[in-house]
Amino acid sequence: MLVGRYWCGGSGVRMLIWWVFFLCFFFCFFFCFFFCFFSVFSLFFLCFFSVSSLFFLFFLFGHTCSQLSSEFHTTTLNVFTHTVRPDPKVVASGGRPYKAIVVLFLAGAADSFNMLVPVTGCDPAHDLYQEYKTIRGNAALDTSELINIVDTSNTQPCTTFGVHKNLPIVSDSYDLGEAAWIANMGTLIQPTTKQQFKDKSVPLPPSLFAHNVMQKSIATMHPQLSSSSGILGRITDVLSSRTSQPYKSKLYSIAGPQKIVTGGPNADIISGSVGVQRYVDYDVLKDSIVNMTHRMSENYLSDTYSGTLKHILEATESLGTKLNQQTVTATFSEEDLSSQFKQVAKVIKMHRHASTPSAERVERAAFVTKLGGFDTHRDLAETLEARMATINAALTSFVEEMKTHQQAWDEVTVVTISDFGRTLTSNGLGTDHAWGGNYFVMGGDIQGEQIHGQYPSKLGEENGEVNLGRGRIIPTTSWNSLWKPVAEWFGVNSGTEMDVCLPNHEKFPNVLGKGDLFK
User: Fold this and answer.
1) pTM of the shown model
2) What's the confidence (pLDDT) of residue 462?
3) Does domain 99-277+330-517 correspond to CATH entry 3.40.720?
4) Residue 327 class from Cβ within 10 Å (0-12 exposed, 13-18 middle, 19+ buried)?
5) Distance of alpha carbon 14 from its chain centroid, rounded?
6) 71, 291 in Cβ contact below 8 A?
7) Do the beta carbons of residue 78 and residue 302 sit within 8 Å?
């Protein structure tokens, strides 16, 4: 609908003038045309009046054309107001100890049943490793391709498991009590059994086994609501928007735009290879940019664009300048994932640097990194071996930098996520889309040497309770058992705050808490 205040920039007087002049123009035009047609003077008067009227209308229309449209504004004329654009609200630091979450997203669905394998100490009546080899066929790993770790939780079907041979940083951290595993974890809305799945008697995540939808589900932790924001975004938003003692929090993606960081403070996107991409002509055009963005606009679209442009350019310049001043001591390889973790290490060093004024010190930071190429339908062995080596190189350098050079390892938690697991059975060349999988978490504050969740005690379709067929394993642990303890460690309170972050967590009676995963 058309509303007067939009037609004339909020001025009823200007609207009245517009209409009065418009009616007078047409009245005079028709009067002169019909009654003075043969008069040269009348024709001259008609032409003069018409041209001057048009000039006046163009002037008036030009001043108000940004309002000559519907409420949602279809024009983009940038008419400045006298109001100076306010600076974004800044949360002051409370001086509390720093903490950082670093998400490693294994995009494409990692075959995590070859990342954590049952080996020995299993039920004597049921050789779980032999069953693993039988079901996996040519996808199975030999014990010589595994690094043994011992589970101290006494809740798993075996006491000794094997970590993929190309992940020594994970097995070493596990033995040091700085890494743990969560077994058979996946996206769930509520606990689901094999029979319930077949009967469709419980709500299931949408589009199971589809990459795009399942990636969104793990990013939002709210699979039944497709419009939900990201879990990292909600966690940092809860902490930074408290009415009492909010945390100064920041979000970063080193992997381009990612759903997981939406919904909180604006995430800064940093390139793994070059760091912050700054506008090369900013110094030359700075004054012009200030002139364009300093005052607010009458047009909503123009005002939103100007405000966003101002914030992006100023934030980019500020972050880019500070980050360029940081260096790391550990050696990172030139591989993309190592470069991403190098940038994370530089940001953490920047946050904790002694020169940062206390009121500006970030207290909570969350990062997302990404390694793709895990959709191993045709090349499981080669791809998984290469990807594990890439992860190991990146984490080895990152752990060294955090522990030895920055003394920040106790303040950092690294978590791994992936679309879903892969089938236990082989298709001849690789494995296909499945559901549950095994994931590790690392950090100086982790209560390690434990495998949480429940590794399947039987892997077969006939004798097992979690094999849906073709080796698709129903997860017995939801992602809530990763995110609830991590959120609590990060500072999220139980009750309303946790409900906002994890809408489904109360549906899982055995969900892990901070005391289970952290020291």
Assistant:
1) 0.85
2) 84
3) yes
4) exposed
5) 48
6) no
7) yes
